[in-house]
């Protein structure tokens, strides 16, 4: 699935290449790391964009145009820099929330190697 259908970002800031699955509670995506590699900050952004895919289709079909604002990052861990040409496998799962607030657990792997994880909090804003 094209991530542009689920995430408001566009190139060059759209970091996801493909969304493998997305539903109301979980999303799985892939990102091929560009020639410059990924800093820890951009790795965190990859995790946040994966979280943005959770539930987006259902809200769009209901006629809403929500935007998620990242409001918290907890326990972010990046094991190592991500090099050019590596393929990231990203997963995000909604683990809590109340009203327009949502809490996600997100993680990234290169192959079988865990390379990042974080707990991310968002607030949904509907225009």
Counting copies of identical and different chains, the oligomeric state is single chain
Work out the helix count: 2
From the spread of the alpha carbons, the general shape counts as globular
Strand order in the largest sheet: 1-2-4-5-6-3
The tally of strands reads: 6
Helix amount: 10-25%
Task: Provide the low-confidence segments as ranges.
Answer: none
Radius of gyration: 14 Å
List the helices and strands and how they pair.
Blueprint: E1 18-22, E2 26-32, H1 40-52, H2 56-61, E3 66-78, E4 87-98, E5 101-110, E6 113-126
Description:
By secondary structure, this protein is mostly beta strands. 15% of the residues lie in helices and 48% in strands. It is built from 2 helices and 6 strands. It has helices spanning 40-52, 56-61; strands spanning 18-22, 26-32, 66-78, 87-98, 101-110, 113-126. Strands 1-2-4-5-6-3 form a 6-stranded antiparallel β-sheet. A hairpin with a 3-residue loop joins β1 (18-22) and β2. The model has no long low-confidence stretch (mean pLDDT 90).
């Amino acid at each position: 699935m094209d991530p542009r259908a689920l995430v408001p970002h566009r190139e060059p800031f759209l970091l996801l290449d493909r969304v493998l699955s997305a539903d109301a509670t979980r999303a799985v995506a892939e990102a091929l790391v560009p020639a410059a590699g990924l800093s820890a900050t951009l790795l965190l952004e990859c995790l946040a964009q994966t979280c943005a895919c959770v539930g987006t289709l259902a809200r769009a079909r209901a006629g809403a145009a929500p935007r998620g604002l990242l409001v918290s990052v907890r326990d972010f861990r990046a094991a190592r820099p991500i090099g050019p040409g590596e393929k990231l496998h990203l997963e995000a799962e909604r683990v809590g929330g109340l009203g327009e607030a949502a809490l996600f657990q997100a993680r990234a792997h290169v192959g079988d190697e865990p390379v990042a994880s974080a707990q991310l909090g968002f607030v949904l804003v509907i225009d």
